[in-house]
Design brief:
The structure holds two protein chains of two kinds. Chain A has helices at 9-16, 22-58, 140-145, 159-190, 193-208, 211-230, 240-264, 268-276, 281-292, 294-310, 313-318, 336-345, 353-383, and strands at residues 61-68, 79-81, 94-97, 100-108, 111-118, 131-136, 149-150, 155-156. Chain A is an alpha+beta fold. In chain A, strands 1-6-3-4-5-2 form a six-stranded antiparallel beta sheet, with no helix packed on it. Chain A has a two-stranded antiparallel sheet with strand order 7-8. In chain A, a hairpin with a 2-residue loop joins β3 (94-97) and β4 (100-108). Chain B folds into two domains: 50-156, no CATH class; 177-416, Orthogonal Bundle (MetI-like fold). Chain B has a three-stranded antiparallel beta sheet. Chain B is globular, with a radius of gyration of 30 Å. Classes of the chains: A alpha+beta, B mainly alpha.
Chain lengths: 388, 417
Amino acid sequence: MSVSNSRAEPDIAQQLRRRPRRFETLIRWSLLAAAVLSIFTTVGIVYELGKESLRFFTRQLWEETNKQLAAAVDADDTLLPVTRGGATLHPQDVIRIDDEVMRVRAVKGTILEVTRGVQNTQPTAHPAGRAIYRGERVSLVEFFTGTQWAPQIGKFGMLPLLNATLMVAGIAMIVALPLGLGIAIYLSEYASDRARRWLKPTLEILAGVPTVVYGYFALTLVTPLLRAIFGKDVVEVYNLASAGIVVGILIIPLISSMSEDALSAVPQSLRYAAYALGATKLETALQVVVPAAFSGLAAAFIVAISRAIGETMIVALAAGAGPNFTFNPFEAAETITGHIVRISSGDLSYDSIDYNSIFALGLVLFFMTLTLNIISQRVVRKFRQVYD
Amino acid sequence: MKTDRAEDLFQPNLPRRHRIGRWGLILFQASTLVGIVVLTALILNILNRTFGYVALTYRVPPEALSINGIPVERLHSLDLAYLLRQHLPPQMIARLERDGPLEQRPRRELLDLLAIKVMQPKVLETWTLAQSLFCRQAIETRVARLYPEARLVFRSWLTPEFLIRPQSSRPEFAGVRTAVLGSLWVVGIAIVFAFPIGVGTAIYLEEYTRSKDHWLHRIIQTNINNLAGVPSIIYGILGLAIFVRALAPLTSGAIFGLVPEGATANGRTILSAGLTLGLLILPIIIINAQEAIRAVPNSLRWASYGLGATQWQTIWHHVLPSALPGILTGTILAMSRAVGETAPLIVVGASTFITVDPTSPFSKFTTLPIQIYQWTARPQDVFRHLAAAAIIVLLVMLLALNATAIILRNRYTLRRG
């Protein structure tokens, strides 16, 4: 930006004035657009999961009642004679004959009084012997409290899937918590610089191994080991314990590296103060350093739980296919993520109940992990001790 | 009990406290050891199944094909073509020669044809490396008893042919070429999509927002941190709903008129998979790029402004070049995450069985981890050996990526220092 000397004074002021820089503005806005895309991703996740879940819960499922029309009806008849037997119908039930949907107003023995042609369908005549279907919806109560997940027969209780997910996560934490914390304390308090230079990359390798490889490991080594130890009659080929143990191994590096960061952040002066009071190294580590780093450690554990809940390939390979409501870790049971993978690995047709159900399950999974992640961020912010 | 000396007060407890301290150390060392043992077990378990004895039968044994005592692998292509003509029915030869006479084919292809069509090796039973090394006697007696016509061969499942052969339903001839090519395509698209957007976001957050407490900055930053914690399978569901279903005309190539002939992918294409993985690795790229940009000293920016450069000139000519090694390291880490990712791709609709190489972003796809998953999920032992060999290929790919990242990081620190 050179200012030529030949110009008169007012022109210099004119030249030095802030000019609009179109290119700069363009760049700025396109960078902002890129940044906002990440928000769109979140919005997209919530919107798509929400939309399809809503379809899942509002979807009309037609269940056979084993009743038929006892006589032919015209398009304007509101009294339908039906056969005996089959399911009992109640007032306010929605029923379907051929393509026409009706609402039951009253039930008098074998005569149904109905409103014809509801839900945008046209009343038409139906011959005798037509099957009657009853409309059902997946209720939120059933979804969260039902103990059977069997979409083929209209059972949509997610507890078996949730239970298996939590059991895998629980077993994983039992394995990973002590080991991860032990490694972190060793690395930050005991290990020499040389040992640390070797151990940290080793753990990083463990963290970088793809989860499908861990799944292979679970199925071909851990499961046979468990079966050899506890007996083949006790441990099934696919079981929660094997999946849980290997998920635990998977999250050890996560816990140990986050915990080690937290422990290393504790100022050296605290350790010296403890030593000066005559504390041994272990006492210093457990009674001074660990409490001082508590917020970081807690955050690490919570993130690890969230990771264990969302882990997919290990459970898909080792935990078994088929929902099973069990508390026995040696039985096969499908987790939420395992179920989503199994359902979607076939040719999934859009607008089927299976398609909608993976979104409802995905939404539950999303909120579980999101809540855990938010809690861990809160824990860090709220309980962080600032040493200056 | 009265004493004046302070150390006597400690005395009764001191040995016990030291003993506990030693046990503590042993415990911490043991847990570290467990980590190392697990890593070793993981690698040994894979190697254990990559090599080992197999019991093989041939329809036509290789010895029967040797001419004048020269083994079949060393024969000239003319001889190989002759052998094929001799052993195969004329209709099959006619079908094979539709693309040109047998004699003009490359030698390797003829050998493959001989193996697949004439020799037809069939694996009856397999053993792991440990079994092969330590129970050789038992294996030999078992083979002699159960399969008297079979021969016992030591086989490596990881061979050069394994890398260049397409997928096959017969484990003797299965390879990972289609899967490796699929992985390269998908990860390539993911990076092309995520790198500019990720780096752009990082630049905006670090260079353009005036204060870290501005509401927009806070929202975007929190959002990115939370996205990094979303399970990968959720991205798969998102990809299924948006890229596969809603954007089907785009991702199947229909609006470009580029649908490959006979395609049945319907949006379950390489492009959908790549974009899904792109969204997945976006937070990783952003967070790493932010750190790299933050590490650029402010003096550099001030010097540039002082010389009259605009903000973008400063970023483009000074901030980005010195942050680049850090950004690239983060990108490579994101790539290695994408290479190993399996679950979202299954949800997006990876194909189970593909024998044709992918040719465009609108082809159906399979990737290496998906191939491993499918082989592992099969109950037969043979496929577990194939899976082990494929895992080694995958781990070598990852190792190469990480080595690049480490070299970049080291060069960067050297130059700085």
